[in-house]
Design a protein that fits this description.
about 40 residues; mainly alpha; about 0% strand
Length: about 40
Amino acid sequence: MNTDFTAIVISVLNQALHWIRSDLASKDVALRQRAEEALRR
């Protein structure tokens, strides 16, 4: 169970990095601001 949980957490974090990169590259100002705020935390 612990190994499964760790794999899930790693997968979610990897996906979050993809989402942030995508938002940073977006032409939508609100998406870019949200991504920048996420990186500051």
